[in-house]
Amino acid sequence: MKLLIVLVSLSLAYALPQQIKMSNIELPVSYSGVGEDTILDLAQTLKLTKLFKLISKLNFQETLFVQGPFTLFAPTDDAFAKLSSYSLRRLENDYELLTDVLLYHVAGTEIYSDKMKNEELVKSRLGSAQVRINIYDKVITVNGCPISKPDQAVPNGVIHLIDYVMFPIPNGDIPSVVASHFDFATLLEAVRVAGLTETLEGDSQTLLAPTNAAFHKLPFDTLKRIMGDKEMLTKVVENHLIKGTVFSVALQNGGQVTTTLNNKLPISIDADSGEIKIGQATVIYPDETTTNGVVHVIDTVLLPPSLDAMTSELSLENSADALKIKTLLDMISKLNFQETLFVQGPFTLFAPSDDAFKALHPYDLHRLQYDNELLTDVLLYHISGTKMSSDQFSNEQLVPSRLGSTEIRVNVYDEVIAVNGCPISKPDQIVSKGVVHVIDYVMYPIPIGDIPYMVASNFEFSTLLEAARVAGLMEKLEGGPYTLLAPTNAAFRKLPYDTLKTLMGNNDMLTKVIKNHMIDGTMFHVALKDGEEITTVNGDKLPVTIGPNGETKIGEAALDFYDVTVTNGVLHVIDTVLIPKDLHVHMVRPIEE
Fold first, then answer.
1. What number is the average pLDDT over the span 232-239?
2. Percent of the chain with pLDDT over 90
3. Fewer CB atoms near the end CB (10 Å): N or C, the chain?
4. b vs e for 337-353, b when ≥16 Cβ sit within 10 Å of the residue's Cβ?
5. Distance from C-alpha of 298 to C-alpha of 242, rounded to nearest angstrom
6. Which pTM does this prediction carry?
7. Got the DSSP string for 354-383?
8. What are the strands, taking DSSP E only, across 359-448?
9. Which secondary structure element, helix H or strand E, spans residue 236, and what is its range?
10. Each residue of 515-561: pLDDT tens digit?
11. Of 50-64, 251-265, 413-427, which range is least confident?
């Protein structure tokens, strides 16, 4: 016998006075032949007793089902048992509310589970209200309620059993829900100041919503500063927003969620209590369904990693020990430069660590400590007059420093960000009026010329300079950005005399040789990887070899000195001339010692 006949018969049975036995019910012709035992058995199997009691209470059988097609998302008896006693009493005693809830669980189309799509919105029979489908691996949910038994086919439709009642019915988007709860007053103000209300009105989003108490857990000065800085506030709110609708059923212990700020938050779920933590925040109320996603109420504000320092005093001086930049701050204090450099913000400080200063040659460190004019220039060169977080950097970007018209070159190599070849080891340290990026080396000497200038200013490159001039490549070397593998005079002298003489007298050959030492783009040493190849402007591929102590070879040439920064790229000083493959390399022999 068809399942719908059984369910409707069961509903009719509940609608009659209890003293009338089901076996005595005079069923409509289309429902006849359904016995009491069969109905009770199937009702027990499907566990839909409570749902059909409520349906029959409104005499809604024909309205909901007979006029198909339909899809019923049917809460089980256990689903109703999970409702609070207050919510259940409301449904049982408020016929208007019950009508809305029942209509919301029914769609006017027949949808089987294999036709459902993630983030699909299905129109219910309650006006324009929609239910949201989500698919998490093999779990299908409607408004976050898992479908435990899908595809129960009946005449005119299909029934999907769900583990929770979809109640309350969502009647607003995320901003509406935030605005309607006084406990989100601080969050609402944060969203407004950050100008993110329109963003939160978009579809398919998850908001981790800190309560007022969560915000008040922050130190007063920290909260005051964040609420008064639109840029900071935007980052904080974006760190609570997740693209896509992630109901609690999708959260897995040991997993993670990624915020729109691209910060990954770990998930932990207590095996005994089921308590969910996302990052450092406990979810105190999950699955507040909205028309455009879901809200999870949390007890802690999730500051982005770049703002973690905000929980302490927001000053560069008080960050010195934690960031290990005490040497730098001592030099700044020596010049009484604090106000000039920082108070007048905004600023970005590329801050050499204490270890970076230790890595300087003793002579260079001595000069910085005793030559105040030089120290002033070096400090100004490490600061930009704009506030730039790491996510604003791009490869080969030139950032103006506070030292006249000088610029700092940013390079992005996979996950490594470098400035003038110095890796940023601690990015995005937010301080008052600016941001600090801790770097592993001091950007010294300050680059003051391009590649031709650097070659011309060092006598050890006199042969290379003449070769570039004869080949007519001086103008090209002024462009870029380029990486030049710069052979020393000694490297040229390693070539047989006749070979060198032939090269220096042949413009075409010399051009090929020089271009075989040029690489498009700025490749500082930090970008070189053992076993990889780099391609020269000439088209040759040169293997990179890096030994256990950092000794580096490119092709057959060892790097005597690397990362000579220039205004249009970088030089690496090499000990061997790299002859292109298409020249007569068999005629080129090093001088035997």
1. 94
2. 72
3. C
4. beeebbeeeebbbbbbb
5. 14
6. 0.52
7. HHHHHTS-HHHHHHHHH-HHHHHHHHHHTE
8. 383-384, 397-400, 407-413, 416-419, 422-431, 434-439
9. helix 230-238
10. 999 999 999 999 999 999 999 999 999 999 999 999 999 999 999 99
11. 50-64
- Is 156:68 a contact under the CB 8 Å cutoff? yes
Q: Is the dihedral of CA 33, 36, 39, 45 positive or negative?
A: negative
To 10 degrees, the CA torsion angle through 295, 298, 301, 306? -70
Residue 257 in contact with residue 219, Cβ under 8 Å? no
Range of the domain at 513: 451-587
Distance CA 359, CA 353 (A): 10
CA-based R_g, the chain, Å: 36
Please report the beta strands in 42-87, taking only residues with DSSP state E, as ranges in sequence order.
Answer: 70-75
Confidence at residue 316, expressed as pLDDT on a 0 to 100 scale? 64
State pLDDT tens for residues 136-171. 998 999 999 999 999 998 878 899 999 999 999 999
Q: Domain count of the chain?
A: 4
Same structural domain for residues 353 and 418?
Answer: yes
Q: Domain check: are 10 and 138 in the same one?
A: yes
Q: Structure tokens of 349?
A: 């400080």
Is residue 198 within a helix (H) or strand (E), and if so which, with residue range? helix 197-200
- Give the Cβ contact number of residue 126 at 10 Å: 17
Verify that 158 and 24 share a domain, yes or no. Answer: yes
